[in-house]
Protein backbone atom coordinates (compact mmCIF):
# COMPACT_ATOMS: atom_id res chain seq x y z
CA UNK A 1 0.00 0.00 0.00
CA UNK A 2 1.43 3.35 -1.02
CA UNK A 3 1.69 6.11 1.58
CA UNK A 4 -0.58 8.94 0.45
CA UNK A 5 0.62 11.45 3.06
CA UNK A 6 1.60 14.68 1.23
CA UNK A 7 5.32 15.33 1.07
CA UNK A 8 6.49 18.10 3.41
CA UNK A 9 9.87 19.58 2.56
CA UNK A 10 9.29 22.95 4.24
CA UNK A 11 10.01 21.38 7.63
CA UNK A 12 13.02 19.57 9.05
CA UNK A 13 13.72 17.26 11.98
CA UNK A 14 17.20 17.80 13.45
CA UNK A 15 18.95 14.94 15.24
CA UNK A 16 20.06 17.08 18.17
CA UNK A 17 22.46 15.78 20.81
CA UNK A 18 23.51 19.10 22.32
CA UNK A 19 27.04 18.79 20.93
CA UNK A 20 28.94 21.24 18.75
CA UNK A 21 28.07 19.51 15.48
CA UNK A 22 24.35 19.07 16.04
CA UNK A 23 24.08 22.62 17.41
CA UNK A 24 25.61 23.96 14.22
CA UNK A 25 23.23 21.78 12.22
CA UNK A 26 20.26 23.15 14.16
CA UNK A 27 21.28 26.71 13.28
CA UNK A 28 21.81 25.62 9.67
CA UNK A 29 18.28 24.15 9.53
CA UNK A 30 16.70 27.19 11.20
CA UNK A 31 18.30 29.31 8.50
CA UNK A 32 16.62 27.25 5.76
CA UNK A 33 13.33 25.71 6.83
CA UNK A 34 10.02 27.23 7.88
CA UNK A 35 9.57 24.79 10.75
CA UNK A 36 12.31 22.94 12.59
CA UNK A 37 11.78 20.30 15.26
CA UNK A 38 14.48 18.56 17.27
CA UNK A 39 14.87 15.01 18.49
CA UNK A 40 17.25 13.71 21.13
CA UNK A 41 18.03 10.14 22.12
CA UNK A 42 18.44 8.85 25.64
CA UNK A 43 20.43 5.72 24.84
CA UNK A 44 22.02 5.17 28.23
CA UNK A 45 24.94 7.53 27.70
CA UNK A 46 27.08 7.82 30.82
CA UNK A 47 26.86 11.59 31.16
CA UNK A 48 23.52 13.34 31.70
CA UNK A 49 25.16 16.64 30.77
CA UNK A 50 24.46 15.85 27.11
CA UNK A 51 20.72 15.90 27.66
CA UNK A 52 20.97 19.06 29.74
CA UNK A 53 23.04 20.79 27.05
CA UNK A 54 20.24 20.27 24.54
CA UNK A 55 17.80 22.34 26.58
CA UNK A 56 20.29 25.12 27.32
CA UNK A 57 21.15 25.42 23.65
CA UNK A 58 17.52 25.56 22.53
CA UNK A 59 16.80 28.24 25.14
CA UNK A 60 19.91 30.15 24.10
CA UNK A 61 18.94 30.11 20.44
CA UNK A 62 15.45 31.38 21.28
CA UNK A 63 16.86 34.23 23.37
CA UNK A 64 19.66 35.29 21.00
CA UNK A 65 17.99 34.78 17.63
CA UNK A 66 14.32 35.88 17.65
CA UNK A 67 13.96 35.30 13.90
CA UNK A 68 14.95 31.66 14.41
CA UNK A 69 12.81 31.32 17.52
CA UNK A 70 9.71 31.72 15.35
CA UNK A 71 10.75 28.65 13.35
CA UNK A 72 11.81 26.42 16.23
CA UNK A 73 9.12 23.87 16.96
CA UNK A 74 8.74 20.97 19.34
CA UNK A 75 11.54 19.02 20.96
CA UNK A 76 11.24 15.25 21.29
CA UNK A 77 13.28 12.86 23.44
CA UNK A 78 13.15 9.16 22.60
CA UNK A 79 14.04 6.43 25.08
CA UNK A 80 16.64 4.06 23.60
CA UNK A 81 18.12 2.77 26.86
CA UNK A 82 17.67 -0.83 25.74
CA UNK A 83 19.85 -0.18 22.71
CA UNK A 84 22.59 1.41 24.79
CA UNK A 85 22.66 -1.62 27.08
CA UNK A 86 23.24 -3.93 24.11
CA UNK A 87 25.69 -1.74 22.16
CA UNK A 88 28.07 -1.10 25.05
CA UNK A 89 30.97 1.25 24.46
CA UNK A 90 33.05 3.73 26.42
CA UNK A 91 30.16 6.17 26.01
CA UNK A 92 27.64 3.89 27.74
CA UNK A 93 29.79 1.80 30.11
CA UNK A 94 32.81 2.30 32.34
CA UNK A 95 35.46 1.38 29.80
CA UNK A 96 38.78 2.90 28.82
CA UNK A 97 38.87 5.24 25.82
CA UNK A 98 41.22 3.37 23.48
CA UNK A 99 41.44 1.56 20.17
CA UNK A 100 39.68 -1.80 20.28
CA UNK A 101 40.95 -5.04 18.79
CA UNK A 102 38.66 -4.57 15.77
CA UNK A 103 40.43 -1.33 14.86
CA UNK A 104 37.56 0.92 15.98
CA UNK A 105 37.66 3.35 18.93
CA UNK A 106 36.07 2.06 22.15
CA UNK A 107 33.80 5.14 21.97
CA UNK A 108 32.09 3.71 18.88
CA UNK A 109 28.51 2.67 19.68
CA UNK A 110 27.76 0.01 17.03
CA UNK A 111 25.00 1.13 14.68
CA UNK A 112 24.09 4.20 16.74
CA UNK A 113 23.45 6.51 13.79
CA UNK A 114 21.54 3.79 11.96
CA UNK A 115 19.25 3.25 14.94
CA UNK A 116 18.85 6.99 15.44
CA UNK A 117 17.72 7.38 11.83
CA UNK A 118 15.12 4.59 12.13
CA UNK A 119 13.57 6.21 15.18
CA UNK A 120 13.86 9.70 13.71
CA UNK A 121 12.17 8.54 10.50
CA UNK A 122 9.28 7.02 12.44
CA UNK A 123 8.87 10.27 14.35
CA UNK A 124 9.19 12.33 11.17
CA UNK A 125 6.42 10.29 9.57
CA UNK A 126 4.13 11.05 12.51
CA UNK A 127 5.10 14.73 12.36
CA UNK A 128 4.69 14.88 8.56
CA UNK A 129 8.33 15.79 7.93
CA UNK A 130 10.44 14.43 5.09
CA UNK A 131 13.79 16.11 5.76
CA UNK A 132 16.09 14.95 8.52
CA UNK A 133 19.27 16.84 9.44
CA UNK A 134 22.27 15.26 11.14
CA UNK A 135 25.78 16.25 12.16
CA UNK A 136 27.55 13.24 10.68
CA UNK A 137 30.82 13.93 8.90
CA UNK A 138 33.62 12.06 7.18
CA UNK A 139 36.45 14.54 7.75
CA UNK A 140 36.71 14.31 11.56
CA UNK A 141 34.53 11.26 12.06
CA UNK A 142 36.73 9.53 14.69
CA UNK A 143 36.74 6.29 12.69
CA UNK A 144 33.00 5.67 13.03
CA UNK A 145 31.77 3.76 9.94
CA UNK A 146 28.15 4.89 10.44
CA UNK A 147 29.20 8.51 9.78
CA UNK A 148 30.22 7.78 6.18
CA UNK A 149 28.17 9.12 3.29
CA UNK A 150 27.85 5.69 1.71
CA UNK A 151 26.44 4.20 4.93
CA UNK A 152 23.94 7.01 5.41
CA UNK A 153 22.82 6.91 1.77
CA UNK A 154 22.06 3.21 2.13
CA UNK A 155 20.12 3.75 5.35
CA UNK A 156 18.01 6.55 3.89
CA UNK A 157 17.23 4.39 0.87
CA UNK A 158 16.09 1.58 3.17
CA UNK A 159 13.85 4.00 5.06
CA UNK A 160 12.36 5.35 1.85
CA UNK A 161 11.46 1.80 0.84
CA UNK A 162 10.40 0.59 4.27
CA UNK A 163 8.16 3.53 5.16
CA UNK A 164 7.28 4.65 1.63
CA UNK A 165 8.07 8.27 2.27
CA UNK A 166 10.47 10.47 0.24
CA UNK A 167 12.96 11.01 3.06
CA UNK A 168 16.20 12.88 2.62
CA UNK A 169 19.07 13.35 5.03
CA UNK A 170 20.90 16.67 5.02
CA UNK A 171 24.39 16.39 6.48
CA UNK A 172 25.88 19.88 6.10
CA UNK A 173 29.08 18.95 7.97
CA UNK A 174 29.84 15.85 5.92
CA UNK A 175 32.96 17.25 4.27
CA UNK A 176 34.01 19.79 6.92
CA UNK A 177 36.76 19.35 9.48
CA UNK A 178 36.24 20.87 12.93
CA UNK A 179 37.72 24.22 11.93
CA UNK A 180 35.19 24.28 9.10
CA UNK A 181 32.38 23.56 11.55
CA UNK A 182 33.41 26.53 13.68
CA UNK A 183 33.58 28.68 10.55
CA UNK A 184 30.09 27.58 9.51
CA UNK A 185 28.63 28.42 12.92
CA UNK A 186 30.17 31.90 12.67
CA UNK A 187 28.81 32.34 9.15
CA UNK A 188 25.33 31.39 10.36
CA UNK A 189 25.13 33.38 13.59
CA UNK A 190 28.30 35.40 14.13
CA UNK A 191 30.07 35.60 17.46
CA UNK A 192 26.76 35.22 19.31
CA UNK A 193 26.27 31.70 17.97
CA UNK A 194 29.93 30.77 18.43
CA UNK A 195 29.79 31.94 22.06
CA UNK A 196 26.59 29.99 22.69
CA UNK A 197 28.12 26.81 21.27
CA UNK A 198 31.35 27.35 23.22
CA UNK A 199 29.55 27.82 26.53
CA UNK A 200 26.58 25.50 26.28
CA UNK A 201 27.31 22.63 23.88
CA UNK A 202 28.91 19.46 25.21
CA UNK A 203 31.43 17.26 23.40
CA UNK A 204 33.77 15.82 26.06
CA UNK A 205 33.65 12.03 26.32
CA UNK A 206 34.34 12.26 30.05
CA UNK A 207 31.42 14.57 30.73
CA UNK A 208 33.67 17.32 32.14
CA UNK A 209 31.70 20.53 32.83
CA UNK A 210 34.21 21.84 35.37
CA UNK A 211 37.14 22.94 33.24
CA UNK A 212 36.47 25.80 30.82
CA UNK A 213 38.70 26.60 27.84
CA UNK A 214 38.51 29.04 24.94
CA UNK A 215 36.71 26.34 22.95
CA UNK A 216 34.33 25.27 25.73
CA UNK A 217 34.07 22.87 28.66
CA UNK A 218 35.97 19.60 28.64
CA UNK A 219 38.77 17.45 30.01
CA UNK A 220 41.17 18.64 27.24
CA UNK A 221 42.44 15.07 27.00
CA UNK A 222 39.90 12.80 25.28
CA UNK A 223 39.70 12.52 21.47
CA UNK A 224 36.53 14.64 21.29
CA UNK A 225 38.13 17.50 23.21
CA UNK A 226 41.27 17.22 21.08
CA UNK A 227 39.30 17.54 17.83
CA UNK A 228 37.22 20.43 19.15
CA UNK A 229 40.21 22.34 20.55
CA UNK A 230 42.41 21.92 17.48
CA UNK A 231 39.53 22.91 15.20
CA UNK A 232 38.84 26.03 17.24
CA UNK A 233 42.49 27.09 17.27
CA UNK A 234 42.83 26.51 13.52
CA UNK A 235 39.69 28.50 12.77
CA UNK A 236 40.66 31.42 15.04
CA UNK A 237 44.14 31.55 13.50
CA UNK A 238 42.60 31.99 10.04
CA UNK A 239 39.77 34.36 10.97
Can you walk me through this structure?
The chain is an alpha/beta fold. It has eight helices and seven strands. Helix 1 crosses helix 7. The longest helix is centred in the C-terminal third of the chain and has 23 residues. It is globular, with a radius of gyration of 17 Å. The protein starts with 10 loop residues before the first strand and ends with a helix.
Residues in β-strands, percent: 5-15%
CATH topology: Rossmann fold
The first-level CATH class is given as Alpha Beta
Strand count, sense and barrel status of the largest sheet are: 5 strands, parallel
Q: Tell me the distance between the termini.
A: 54 Å
Helical content stands at 40-55%
Q: What is the rounded Rg? A: 17 Å
Based on the structure given, which CATH architecture is correct? 3-Layer(aba) Sandwich
* Overall mean confidence score, pLDDT: 86
- The coarse overall form would be globular
Question: Which blocks of ≥5 consecutive residues have pLDDT under 50?
Answer: 90-108
Secondary structure tally, helices: 8
Give the strand order, joined by hyphens, for the main sheet: 3-2-1-4-5
The fourth-level CATH homologous superfamily is HUPs
Strand pairing plus helix content: what structural class? alpha/beta
Number of strands: 7
Order of helices and strands: EHEHHEHHEHEHEEH
Number of domains: 1
Amino acid sequence: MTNTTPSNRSAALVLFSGGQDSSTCLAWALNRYERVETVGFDYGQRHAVEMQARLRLRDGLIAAFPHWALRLGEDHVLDLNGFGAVAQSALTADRAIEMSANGLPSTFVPGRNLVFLVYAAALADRRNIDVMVGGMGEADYSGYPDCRQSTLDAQIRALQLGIERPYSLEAPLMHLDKSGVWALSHELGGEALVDLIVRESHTCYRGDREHFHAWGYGCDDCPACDLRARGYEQWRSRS
